Amino acid sequence: MLLLIILLVFSCLALGVMSLYWILARPAGTVNARLESMDPSLALVENSPLTVMAERVAEPINRMVPISAVEAAKLQKQLLQAGYRSQDAATAFRAIQITILIALPTLVSILCFILDRPLNNFIVWGMVAAAIGFYLPRFVLKRMIQGRQRRIIWGLADAMDLMVVSVEAGLGLNAALNRVGDELKTLHPDMHYEIDLVNLEIRVGRSREEALRNLAERTGVDDIRSFVALLIQADRFGSSIAKAVRIFADSLRTKRRQRAEQAAQKATIKLIFPLTLFLFPVIILIILAPSLFSLYDLLLN
Fold first, then answer.
1. pTM value surpassing 0.70
2. 220 burial class (0-12, 13-18, 19+ CB within 10 angstroms)?
3. Average pLDDT over residues 162-170
4. Which domain holds residue 194?
5. What SS3 state is found at 187?
6. Quick check: is 143 in a domain?
7. What angle (nearest 5°) sits at the alpha carbon of residue 245, between those of residues 198 and 250?
């Protein structure tokens, strides 16, 4: 057991030293530097030193334990919905997951060895730490996806209002998308990045329908899918895009108000648990404390 702990500690220290070396010795990419100099908003999150370190650590790990194509495609889609558009994002995520999977049981084993626990504690707590290390990155990724989708939903209503104004002012759909993306740059950056990607895909030669479908796949939001289906249908049949977008914006505002009312109705039920655990015992103690003291004095005498 002592030999296993020594090997695990050495592996963690080696990974830490390699990570620091790759972070400090990483050369700056010429393409990334030019893109960042042209537009700072094009500096993606996956270019951070932590992600680059994880990608480099993941290379030998993926050779030893390769991931299936189906799992890789599913993970890549989840990372796209979380906002990570790099091709190596799945590899970096898997490297982080495996690193945590090794590091947590190692720390637990070291702690049990320092506290002189029996062998059963090593096995049980090591398995618990391994399970936490396996599911923790996925839980964090799921929360990131939900947070980003929530921000996109809140920004979609403003985007629809701006698009209605732009289309009714005489702009085409592509020009309206450009205008909406520029206006949402500060207030809703997630929606701004997604609309900018749609504009870039249209500029490089992709059809508008394909670019809009990619927008729905990247976000994973049902309202975006409905909006994309509406634009594609209006574009195919030649109907009025301004009228269709206005009707969709009105329905989206109604749905947003209904979500707010639903959250308000849930708040009363959610308040029951903190009130029961924290407020009611204090009130009961304050009300009954004088009686308890009097009863105590009476019984003591």
1. no
2. middle
3. 83
4. 150-264
5. coil
6. no
7. 125
CA distances from 258 to 40, 156, 184, 263 (A): 37, 15, 24, 9
Q: Which of 107, 104, 76, 109 is closest to 90 using CA atoms?
A: 76
Q: Is residue 126 part of a domain?
A: no
65 in a domain, yes or no? yes
Q: Return the ∠ at Cα 269 (arms to 279 and 259), rounded to 5°.
A: 135
Pair 231, 173: CB distance under 8 Å: yes
Instruction: Assess whether 188 and 101 both reside in one domain.
Output: no
Is there a domain that residue 32 lies in? no
pLDDT band at 268 (very low <50, low <70, confident <90, very high): confident
Token couple for 129:
């730490």
Q: Which two tokens stand for residue 183?
A: 């206006």
Amino acid code (one letter) for 120: N
Q: What is the CATH number of the domain that holds 192?
A: 1.20.81
The candidate with the shortest Cα–Cα distance to 52, out of 41, 64, 44, 63, is 44
Predicted local distance difference test score (pLDDT) of residue 43 = 44
Total domain count, the chain:
2
| Extended beta strands in the chain, E state | none
Q: Are residues 164 and 233 in the same domain?
A: yes
Decide if 67 contacts 31 (C-beta within 8 A): no
